[in-house]
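Let's study today's protein:

:::
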Amino acid sequence: MVSRELDSLPFPYLPLRFQVGRFVFEEEGLLDTGFEGGIAVPPDILGDVGPPDLLPTRLRPVLGPQVDAPTYAGFFHIGNLGPFPVDIIAAGDEILIGQQAIAHLTITLDHGQRVVVSP
């Protein structure tokens, strides 16, 4: 099994490359096991992508009413692992890597110091 330590970023952020259509983005994403979706990105990042190609995702924030967020079919890589299919959701003000994406990987949080990712 190949694993890769990803400790160059602040814990628990991961290097993330995701693609929607012909658009490719390279960012850092916060590993968020409490987020059930795929990858959430601030809407302004996806500004040039065009209209969403999936039904909206209904989000239930801790505070406030439910919202329907534009959702795109995409792919992602973490480090050198991937591509994996994922829903890209235009919502929030920080990039979140949620459960739908995490399900493709084995993630080890090592003593709050580093993240080890395996296929």
Summary: The chain has a mean pLDDT of 91. Residues 4-118 form a domain with the Cathepsin D, subunit A; domain 1 fold (CATH 2.40.70.10). The first strand starts at residue 4 and ends at 5.
